[in-house]
Each structure stands twice: as structure tokens, then as C-alpha cells.
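Lab channel / #folding
Pinned by the channel admin:
"Please post every new chain as: sequence first, then the C-alpha cells as a reply. Keep commentary short and put observations after the output so the thread stays searchable."

First post following the new format, from NK:
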Amino acid sequence: MIERFYEFGLSDEVLQSLSDMGFEEPTQIQKISIPDTLKGRDIIGVAQTGTGKTASFGIPIIEKAIRGKSKKPAAIVLSPTRELAVQVAEELNRIGKTSGFISVPIYGGQSIERQIRGLTKGADIVVGTPGRVIDHIKRRTLNLSEVATVVLDEADEMLNMGFLEDMQTILSEVPTERQTLLFSATMPEQIIRISKKYMINPKKVKVDTKDLVASAIDQIFYEVRHGDKQKALTRILDVHDPGRTIVFCHTKREVDELSGKLQQKGYDTGAIHGDFTQSFREEMIAKFKKGSIDILVATDVAARGLDIKNVTHVINYSIPQNPDAYVHRIGRTGRAGKEGIAITFVTPREYSQLRLIERVAKTKIQKGKLPSTKEVKEAKEKVLGEAIEKIIGEAKHEEFYNLVDDLCAVFNPAEVAAAALSLYSGGLMVDDIAESRGGGQQAKAGMTRLFLTIGRDDKVKVGDMVRQISESSNIPGRSIGNIALFDKFSFVEVPTDEAENVIAAINKMKVGGRKVRAQTAKDNKGGGGKARGGGAKGGRKSSGGKGGGKGGFKKRR
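Reply from TO:
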């Protein structure tokens, strides 16, 4: 098996460009497809994004083509989206830089006159969306009569977007004596029919999705109530301090709201979705590439074709709606064999969707524990300490010496310093997050919501609470409803007719020598509200006072 690019027998110019790009060794799809592609054979490549597909067809195209022979393109690449067309053209230009090859992207949303000028100057390779390619063919500004190689990139996505007729029209415009390369994440029947009609004895090469996902990407999910997602995200950002991060949301509105909130909190954040102009999206992607922003919040418009190096984290703020979307989203990190982290927020109701993704994508997503309040504070203190060191190093503090002297004449110097840090940092406040079975702000019919002065910091788990409440108040564990467990307090739903009994029982308990107090929650609606989740039946083992586990929740004797 080939292990280095020079083993393909490539020219010095192409090898120099690959070296300049930082390519060290071929990816799996490149190893198995480039040799036959260089020989002129038609190829069907089944591989997901992030496997190095662009170079797998770009290297042979540039290696085989004769530059400067004609102003007509020697190759055309069809892409389903504007973003992918731009990304592919950029990478082809990098591969062909030393050889002098020019790749031009053409797509809707950009001035067609500007594209015409680019084509008139001469393009060795044209990369375009099907609709815009046909526009240029009809205008006679694009002549495909000398095309030697056609690439159908993300062919299944082009079919999903209704480009079948456009693809067939374009294929009819290129010479019959040509090489055709087709790349697709899946192989629906229509793709098979296209390959039989327009390809000659194609060789099928495949990269297993399981190998792609499992080998390079650390996959984690966190169970988070819908209303706590934003708090959970900021905890992860504060403690893990990731590099380039893409956060995926379902809706444009969610993208706008989340990116706005993150910006207000001081995170360097940008956003892209379908309602933004193409120029704005390109500008935002360019900023993300350069590192001007660290976090890009996006809808699935960016899931395909967004080729940005060194994305360390992908965060599914909203769980993907299908397994294929999950694979494409997390494919933005862990690219070309590099390590990456994919995080998915899952609400209690979304576990079935999570298991479906695992089953279809043939992968395992591990459950993680969100950073604690203590870990967030420690992370913020570290950042604060670094900021203070920088100020001292740059001597920006010297103008305050007189004020410090005046304050220290009245207060202890340590108090003055601590007060200044508190003022500067805003008190290092950390939003609390519930660990729940269903959650909800209102008790459902027939239930009363109780507030308890006990939480995760007391080493208490949901199962402990069910078991101890059941044993102390003599009510069945299955009758206990939703439990929302915070760091220092919790909420529990109990049958309304047993509420006083449960309150009295809990008020007799101690945890670590400290009395526990319970009372009716202030936001309780007297049993008229509707709560999310399935209460005690939602996956928690508890019946007749049994179940739960060991913990620090003890009854006073």
C-alpha cells in the first residue's frame, strides 16, 4: 500500500504544492483511488466528507492536464452548493499553484459578469453548481468541448437537491471520450443508473463510515434540558477552551439567538445560515479560517463542503435529525486523520434519536459529565490571573498606585486586591444547570412541585432521592414525578395529596450533619401545569420504595 505521495509517481511541481499545503501522507480514499485515476479509469468513490476526496481527484487532474494549451477548461467539477464549489476551487488552486493551474468557481449568488471575466481569461478547471454551469453554457461563456475529466462531487446531495436533469444536460455537453469520476456518501438507485449510463467500466472504491468516524473523532453526548443548553455550552467553552469550534443548530432563529447571546457574553462568535447574503457568509467563513472568530454558529447549510483546517470541536447544539446529517456535521472536525471532538446535547426525549444515530452510523457516542461549577470558576480564575499578569507585564497598572495606597490605609491589602478582582470579573458568576428526569417548570396535573435544600454538591443522585423519599414517607417510588437536580438545590414532583406528608418526612432528614429543608416551590401551579418527561417511569428503576443506589441522602435516626 502506498504511504507517501511521491510513490504515486507525481511531478515535482505537484509534490511541491502538496508539501506547501502541509500534506504528509495520503488519506485512505487517496491511496485507493489516485493510482487508477492517474491511469484514466472511471472511478466511483463512496466516502463521507472529510476523507480527502478533493485531493483524490484534484491531484490526478492537475498531474495529467497540459496547461496553457487552450483557454477552454480541461476538467469540470460539479458541486451541489456554493460553499462546496468555493472550497473545492480553493483547494485545486493550492494543488496546482506550483504548476500554474487555475481553477475558477462559478455559482449562483455571485455576479455572473465577474464569472464571465474569469472564464474569458482562461480556466484550466471549472468548479460549479449545476444551475450556474448551465447558465454559462446557454450564454456560450463556457465551452466544454475540450473537457477530459468530469467530476460529480457529492452526487447524492445533488440528486437530493433536484439536479438530476441538470447533471444529465451537462454530461451531454462534454466529449464522450472522457474520464468520469463520481463521489458520493451513499449509493441510491439513481446514482447507480447514472454510473451505468455515463461511465465506462468504473472501479468502485469505498471508505467505511465506521472507520472514518471512530478513528479520528472523540464522540460525547451530554444530557441537558432544552432550557439549559446555552448554560451547558458556555461551561464547555470556559473549561475546555477549544480552538476553532462549529456549533450546529436546527433553525435560523436559533442560530441568531445563540450567536447573539455568545457575543454578549464576550465570546468571539460568528453565524451563517441561508438568510444571510452569499458575500456575508463568505466573509464570516474567511474570518473563521483566519482565527478572527473562534466560534461559528451555523445551520446545516454549512455541514457539507465547509473545508476548514484545525476545527477542534463540533457541537451539536440541536441533535441532528438523521444519522447522515450527524456524520456530515461531525466530519467538520477530525479531518485528514487529525483528532477532533464531537459533542451532542441530548434532551431526555431525544434518547431514541441518539440510539438511531449510533446504530445507522455504526458508532458509539459516550455519555459525558458537564463541567461542574467549581471547574468553571477555576477556569475563569485562570483566565483572570493571566489577564492580570499581562497588565503587570505591560505596566498598565501603575497609574492606580496612589488609589491603592489610599485604600490600603483603610483596608487589608488582600481585601483590596480581592475586591478589585471581584469588580473586574463580575463575581465569576456561573449559571446553574439541572440534572433531571424530564424537568419542567410546572407540575403536571395532580402533582405538586417541592423545593429541597439539597443538590449535587451533597453527592446526591436522582436514584438516592427517589429511594429515600419513598422509604421515609411510605409512598411508592413510581408515584414520584420529575426530579431536577441542581448543584445546591433540587425540585421534586410528588402527588398533591401526599405533599404535606413528604415535606414533613424530608424536614426530618440530615445530609452530612446538615438538616434538609423542603417546601412547596414558588413556581408551582397547583397541579395545573404540564411538565416534560416521563416522571418516575422515564427509565428510572423504582417501585414500592426499592431501587436507586447508594449515596449521601440519609434519614435522621
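NK: The first strand starts at residue 43 and ends at 46.
TO: also worth noting, Confidence is low (pLDDT under 50) at residues 436-440, 526-557.
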